[in-house]
Each structure stands twice: as C-alpha cells, then as structure tokens.
Amino acid sequence: MVDYDLVVLGGGAAAFAAALKAAEMDSKVAMVESGTIGGTCVNVGCVPTKNLLSIGEIIHECVAKSNSQSFSNPEFDFDDLINKKDELVQKLRNQKYTDVIKSMPNTEFIKGHAKIRSSNEVSVDDRILKGRYIVIATGSSPSVPPIHGIENVDYLTNVEALSLSKKPDSMIIIGGRALGLEFAQMYARFGTKVTVLQRSQRIIPEEEPEISDILRTYLEEEGIEIRTEANPTKMRKEGRDKVVFLDGEDEIRAEEILLATGRRPNTSSLGLESAGIGVRSDGAIIVDDEMRTNIPNIFAAGDVIGKPMLETAAAKEGSVAASNALFGTHKKMDFNTVPHAIFTSPQVASIGITEREYREKYGVCSCKSLLMSDVSKAVIVNKTKGIIKMVVEPKTGRIIGVHILSDLAADIIHEAVLAVKHRLTVDDIIDTVHVFPTMSESIKLVATSFKKNVKQLSCCAE
Q1: By the 8 A CB rule, do 277 and 116 touch?
Q2: Could you tell me the residue range of the domain that residue 428 belongs to?
Q3: 276, 302, 336: which is the final residue of a domain?
Q4: Please, which residues have CB within 8 angstroms of residue 210's CB and are 6 or more apart in sequence?
Q5: What three-state secondary structure class fits 416?
Q6: 302 and 350 within one domain
Q7: Are residues 113 and 178 in the same domain?
Q8: 436 vs 365, more confident
Q9: How would you class 315 by CB atoms within 10 Å of its CB: exposed for 0-12, middle for 13-18, buried for 19 or more?
Q10: What pLDDT is stored for residue 436 in this prediction?
Q11: By percentage, how much of the chain surpasses pLDDT 70?
Q12: Within this chain, do residues 9 and 103 fall inside the same structural domain, yes or no?
C-alpha cells in the first residue's frame, strides 16, 4: 500500500509542472516544500529582476533624452521601488502557485524538510510519506566561491541584492555571465558605480564572441567597469568599504559585493545515499533523457540535475518526469532546442549550436551575421544596437543555431526555436511571409543573406 501516486520534493517550476501533469489523470500527489512556494523564478529570479530591469531602462531612457544636468543623476524612492517589486512578487506567487495548488483537489501541499528514506519513502519532519514514484525538484542555491576571507565579509547574492533597503553608491559584482550582467546594468542605471569581475577572457563566454564583445562595449558606454581575466584571491572589510584583491595584489573597493558565480543543486541534505541515487561531483543528480535516476521509480527535474538552470527547462523536465513515471510515455528531453536569454539592454537570446561548437565537431560551418542597423524596424524606432547570427549546416542549409543581441531578442528568438526544432532550412524561412516592419523580420533577413546582399534589397523584397 502507498499513500500517494507521486511524491514531489520542491515547490517551484519543475515541481508544479510534475504535479499538474499528474493532476491530468487525477493521481494522488504530495508536494513537499521547505521554503517559500514558487521557487527561485517568481521569488528571487525572473519576476523581480525583470521588473527592476524595466524600471532601470525607463530611468536610462529618460536620462538619455534629457539635457538637464540635474537629471543626469535622477533621484527616486528606492525603498518604494523595492516595496512595489515585493507586491508584484506576492501577487504572482499567489496567482501562479498558491491558487493553483488549491485548484488541484488530489494534491496535498506539505510544508517541511524532506529526506529520502528508501526508494519509495520520504520523511517530512515526523511524518512518513509513501509513494509509487518520487520526483526530486528541490532547485538550487547561489554558489559561494572559495575566496580567502569571504566568510568575514557581508556579501550579497541575488536574494539580498533584490531586497536592499538603500541603494548602494558602489558595487563589485563577481561574475560576468547572465545574472552578473543583469544586476550590473540594473544597479548602474539606478546610479550605482558598478565594477564587474570575470575570470575568463570574455563576459558571457559561452555566447558567440561577437555578441560578447559588442555587449561589453555597450555596457562600458553606460559607465560599467568590466575587468576580464580577473581572479579574486581574497577579500576583507575595511571600515565602510569591502575590498576585493586580485592576482598581483591589485585591489578594488566598494560599498557592496555581489556574488554572481553560479548556482549549486539543493541536494546535500536530501539523504540521496539512502536510496542509492547517483550524483555528480557538483551535487547534481544524474538522470537519463527521460529524467529517470539510476533508481527506476525516482525521477529528478529542474536545477537539481544541473545545467541548463532555466525555469522553462525545469518546467518541461518536471512534466516529462511525471508523464514517464505515471503514464509510461517515455518522453525525452531535447536540450538542443531549449532557448535561453539574458535580459540586459539590448537583450541576448540564443538557440542551438554556436559556430565554434560546430567547427570543433565538423571542421567547417556556414554562418552569416546581420547588424540590427540593417533591419528597417530597428532604424524606425531607433533600436539599432546589436547583431543576429545564423549557423547553418553547409550541405543541407538546415538552421542549427541562431544567436541574437538586440532589443526584444528574447521575443524574436522563438521563430528560430521552431526552425531548429523542426529542422527548417534558410529557404523555409525565406519562403515565409513576415510582417513589416518588425524586429522579428531580422530572422528572415539573416536567412536571406545566405542567398543575397540584403543591403541591395527594397523593403519586403524576396
């Protein structure tokens, strides 16, 4: 006898997707969450950061259009801004999570810390839950690098940086990938002096080099100091300042230090060893492409399985895990067709393989790039910053990667996602009529550039 068809550990995107899939067949589900319902995205991730980034963009555009010296450093109620962000988070948490769980009569939400006792038993404080299947979806937490003296410095993670009561005058951000750059631009536009430290030769090193280099130029034009190949060796507090020392004893001082050095799976206290569940050296749970662990009736989804740590990927993984567990569907995750975006201004969005990855594998690649200044809508609305790059299989013309730096890149990318997912060619895109003028027309223009010189075409020409 079992108490539940499915026991889900966690209360974020992957956990809810699994529970919702189970609810389609009226399965009996227990969802166990030790923290705040909703997980990272709605509480301390996508929702609050994009809200604050949008406000920062409005401030930046007002400053850019003003000739007033007093407006070059605008004053605003920072505390009120944070309070309104909190109200938004609470509203969406209630609508998308608390109210949703109430709408599923066969799902029981249990507050407490879960620990796996066996392949079908989970303890929650002093209670034992028995389930036919278990889905582990406990998310991730900020990763803290082993820098000498860091334990004596009150550093920030994304959690604290979203809830400061006072806007800092200066901030050092350790990490130059998505999270670090979003916070860098957010606070710089609020009026904070920001310095970004990135260990590699480029910021966002996994992106196309052109996108990385051009975005760096834009961020530096806004006054953000970016130091690459910067290796923090120690840090300490000196009076009101916090000091980061780099190789060669170079030092940087600021009021606050924000760690944006990645995330680690929340697996250390789950008792995975009791069920013999396999994990990698970084603590991520090992799963196959059906989200199944090495224990047949235990699945894992979301950040606990490692990269890509994206809310949308987590939700898809949770749905796949529950579907395979309860319905035996044998669905598989295809990570090659999962897009990602960075919400700087301009935005970065990417799907599929990069030019470097394809060349390393096959030795040859067909690629074309198009400046956004060659897109009519971008010129019309004065949003000409950026570039779009398309990676194509040389023999077939099949689109295998698209990488964008532009205004609305996170929206534009979805046509490219369908192209990669459904193995479309540049001819398929060229043959599709697009609305004019739009930013998404850039997809058709870069595809057309494989056949013609787009600078010599009239508007909407084939």
Answers
A1: yes
A2: 346-454
A3: 336
A4: 369, 387, 389, 405
A5: helix
A6: no
A7: no
A8: 436
A9: buried
A10: 95
A11: 97
A12: yes
